[in-house]
């Protein structure tokens, strides 16, 4: 009986780990600071390639992503060596859920507003 329970717990754990790893999407941020979510389903977190932005130091990246955050989008730890950051979206603050296309439109508008304020990284 113990071996059946052990196998069940192991299968449950393995399945939950596989599920949690598959719920992180991929995205890119282009040189104009526009984030482009990949895929067709909106996810909560995205591994995002930001190599096109031209961030020159870990400190500059940390400050930039803090400045670029708002109530709908936050940024996790910035990996300067690999030029990656975790983008965390908060759809719970919306009245109606957005599609990937609507999120990408939002990111375009957000980047355009920030670029109008500061044509280059402000740090």
Please write out the topology.
Elements: H1 2-22, E1 24-29, E2 35-37, E3 45-49, H2 58-68, E4 73-79, E5 84-89, H3 100-117
Parallel strand pairs: 1-3
Antiparallel strand pairs: 1-2, 3-5, 4-5
Describe this structure in words.
With 123 residues, this protein is of the alpha+beta class. The chain has one domain. It is 41% helix and 22% strand. The chain is built from 3 helices and 5 strands. It has helices spanning 2-22, 58-68, 100-117; strands at residues 24-29, 35-37, 45-49, 73-79, 84-89. A 5-stranded mixed β-sheet has the order 2-1-3-5-4. The radius of gyration is 18 Å and the shape is globular. It starts with a helix and ends in a 6-residue tail after the last helix.
Beta-strand percent range: 15-25%
Average of pLDDT: 87
Q: Which bin fits the share of residues in helices?
A: 40-55%
| Number of E-type strands | 5
Which structural class matches the secondary elements? alpha+beta
Order of the strands making up the biggest sheet: 2-1-3-5-4
Order of helices and strands: HEEEHEEH
Principal-axis shape equals globular
Low-confidence stretches: 5-21
Question: How many alpha or pi helices?
Answer: 3
Distance between the termini: 62 Å
Radius of gyration, whole Å = 18 Å
Largest sheet: 5 strands, mixed
| Total tally of structural domains | 1
